[in-house]
Design goal:
The protein has about 170 residues and is of the alpha/beta class. It contains five helices and six strands; from the N terminus they run E-H-E-E-E-H-E-H-E-H-H. A four-stranded parallel beta sheet has the order 2-1-5-6. Strand 1, helix 1 and strand 2 form a beta-alpha-beta unit.
Length: about 170
């Protein structure tokens, strides 16, 4: 396996209260492979408040919505094709904050990859989006590109409608 010849960047998502050990392992595998993780920064959890995790580099006195918006601001730096979102979701559980982040990532047309197929929300994910972190890393290093997010197998009515919805610019006037 060769080193990455171009920069790949990502954000890492998940329910930290339910799967922090798996989250840390996945995060470390991606970072050690040379993938630039924009958010969150690798620290330990400082506090849980009402089910929301604050990292050591967060101000635990900040409103959780502000902390979440800072995370989403990092997501806005991702570019489709080179930037991606990785969801650490053992047993398929994503959780409320990561579900919100997933919707934003999909609207931005970012590739989203998952440890397991999501089970706790009614969302469509393409067939080629479930990857163990080491498999995803191996693919990226071998091909120097992200796996195709939409494939010819994604031909269901749901896939076509979601793809169409997210391809058009929303009218917010």
């Amino acid at each position: 396996m060769r080193n990455l010849s171009k920069d790949f960047v990502c954000t890492v998502h998940g329910s930290l209260s339910k799967s922090f050990a798996t989250y840390k392992l996945s995060y470390d595998l991606l970072a050690n492979a040379g993938i630039n993780i924009l958010a969150p920064k690798r620290t330990e959890i400082a506090d849980f408040q009402s089910g929301f995790a604050y990292f050591e580099n967060d101000d635990i006195h900040d409103d959780k919505r502000l902390v979440e918006l800072r995370f989403i601001s990092a997501m806005n730096q991702l570019t489709p094709g080179e930037g991606f979102c990785y969801f650490v979701n053992p047993s398929g559980y994503i959780g409320p904050s990561a579900s919100y982040e997933l919707a934003i990532a999909q609207m931005k047309r970012l590739s989203c990859y998952f440890l397991e197929k999501p089970h706790d929300l009614p969302t469509y994910i393409p067939e080629n989006s479930v990857w163990e972190p080491y498999e995803l890393i191996s693919y990226i290093k071998s091909n120097n590109e992200l796996p195709k997010y939409y494939t010819h197998e994604d031909s269901t009515k749901i896939a076509k409608l979601q793809h169409t919805l997210f391809e058009s610019e929303p009218d917010i006037t």
